Structure formats: C-alpha cells, structure tokens
Amino acid sequence: MIRVLASRWQGSVLVCGKCSKKLDGGFGEKGRTPLVKLLRQALGVKKGRKSDRGVVEVKCLGVCPKNAVVMVDGARPERWMLVPAGADTEEVVATLSEPASVP
Ligand code: FES
User: Has residue 45 got a pLDDT over 60?
Assistant: First the structure.
C-alpha cells in the first residue's frame, strides 16, 4: 500500500551536493555558500514539502565538472546546467523555469 502525501511543490531543482562540497561552497560573497542554500534564499523557499518549490541537494550526478555545480531544473530535465563557482545569483535564478501556477 503506497500512501500519498500532499505537497505544495510547484517545481523542483536538484543540486549536486558533491560538486558543492568540492568547491567548499563556491558561492556568495565569501565564496563559501553552497548553491543549494543560495537558491533557497533567492527563491524564498525552505526545506520540505510545505514550500512552493523543492530545492534539493542530491548525490553525485555523474558529470563532475571542474569549478562548477550541476543543477537540474525539474521542469526541464532534458538540459542540465553547470553553474560556475561564484556565478551571480540572479543569473542562476533566471535560468530556472517559473513554478507551475496553482489551478
Ligand atoms: S560531483 Fe557533482 S556531478 Fe559528480
């Protein structure tokens, strides 16, 4: 029996945690903020199913770029993005699709 839980997620973003770890963060003013944290701040979302969008740190996605973090927009899984360390937050957010509107 599979139980179903309601979630407020209207979209999701996967961020490689191992890439972030290799960069020792890599983002923010001091270059020590992980991309997942930066995105959550920029999008104003928290962890868990009650936020509007899921921003989830995942294990290695098998791409392993140098000086970049692999990010996958759940709405456009056919194109993976390699976000260079120190990239501008607004620029990164602009690459993500808008969350689906609530019917
Ligand atoms: S370490 Fe990030 S994709 Fe492998």
Answer: yes
